[in-house]
Amino acid sequence: MKIRPPARAMLVAVLAGLSGCRSGAPPDRPPTGFGEERPRTETRPDERRRDGGRKDHAELDRPEDRGRWEDREGREGRDDRGGRTRRSSPSAGNTPGAFDFYLLNLSWSPEFCATHPRSPECGSHLGFIVHGLWPQNNDGTYPEHCGDAPGPSNPGAYHDFMPVDSLVQHEWQTHGTCSGQPPDAYFGMARKAFQEVTIPSELARLDSEAMLPPADIIGAFIRANPSFPPESIALSCGNNRLTAIEICMSKTLQPIACESIRSCRAQQVKITPP
User: Fold this and answer.
1) What is the chain's pLDDT, residue by residue, as a tens digit (274 residues)?
2) How crowded is residue 206: how many other Cβ atoms within 10 Å of its Cβ?
3) Which domains does the chain have, with CATH numbers?
4) Distance (Å, whole) CA 11 – CA 72
5) What count of Cα atoms within 13 Å lies in the side-chain half-sphere of residue 140?
6) Which of 32, 35, 146, 261 has the least C-beta neighbours within 10 A?
C-alpha cells in the first residue's frame, strides 16, 4: 500500500512521539544558578548519605545508637562527602588545649532537613547553623573526647546558632572538652565565631534549588568576607549537594589559611533551599 506524502509525515510524527514516550527520558535541563527554579524530581539510591553521615538529633539518645553515632563530620575517614576526606586520624594525645587551630563548621540545615524532616530544627526553615567549632592539628589529626567534664547547664542558651540540645551536648563531649575552655566559654567562642561570618546574600535569600560550582559558592563567601584569607574557606558536600561551609580560625578566632582541610571536589553542587 502506498502512503501519500502528508500521511507519511503524520505517521513519522506519531511514531516519533511513541518512541519518546517509551524512552521515558525527560529533556535535559541546563545547570541553574542562584534564584533559578529547577523541579526536584530525581531520586538517589544513596539519599541517606546526603547529610554527610549525620543522624537525626532525636536519635542521639536511642540505646542502639549509644557509642556508635557517626556525626555530621563523617569522621571515619570514608570518602563519602563528595570525594572529600577531611581528616586522616585522631591524634595520639587528647590533652585539652593541645591543638593548632579551630575549624568552624557551618552546616547547611536545609540539606540535613531534606532527609531528616522530623528533626526539631527543621520546622524553622533555617539556613546555616553551627555544627561545631572543632580543634584541629596542622598535620590533619584532631583531638576528641578529652575529658568527662559536664556540658553547659542550660544548652538552650545556645539555640540561636546551635538549635538542638542534643547537638550542644554532643559537640561539648566530642570537641569542646578538647578546647581547654569551660563549657560556657567554649560555646561563647562558637557564637562569636559564627557572628564574625557574613552569609552571602545569594544564600541568605535563596528560595529555589540552585546548582553551582563549589568555587562559585566559596567565591561568594570571600566577597562577603573580604578580610578573610581566601584559603581560609572550604566547602563540604555529600552526593554533590552542599552540606557545609568550613572556616579555619586561630585559637583567637582570626581567620587563617587552612593547612590540612580539603574542599569538595565535585564539579557542581546543588543547594537545597530552606
Assistant:
1) 444 554 444 434 434 443 443 344 444 444 456 544 433 333 332 322 334 434 444 333 333 322 222 334 433 232 222 223 344 467 667 899 999 999 999 999 999 999 999 999 999 999 999 999 999 999 999 999 999 999 999 999 999 999 999 999 999 999 999 999 999 999 999 999 999 999 999 999 999 999 999 999 999 999 999 999 999 999 999 999 999 999 999 999 999 999 889 899 999 999 999 9
2) 18
3) 46-271 (3.90.730.10)
4) 56
5) 10
6) 35
Q: In this structure, are residues 239 and 50 in contact, taking their beta carbons and an 8 Å threshold?
A: yes
CA gap 157, 169 in Å, rounded: 12
Alpha helices in the chain (DSSP H): 5-23, 109-115, 165-174, 183-195, 201-204, 214-224
pTM of the complete model: 0.73
> Which residues are known to be catalytic?
131, 171, 175
Concatenated DSSP letters for 185-198?
Answer: HHHHHHHHHHHTPP
Count how many Cα atoms sit within 13 Å of the Cα of residue 67 in the half-sphere of its side chain: 2
Three-state DSSP state, 130: strand
d(CA 79, CA 90): 16
The C-alpha atoms of residue 149 and residue 147 are separated, in whole angstroms, by 6
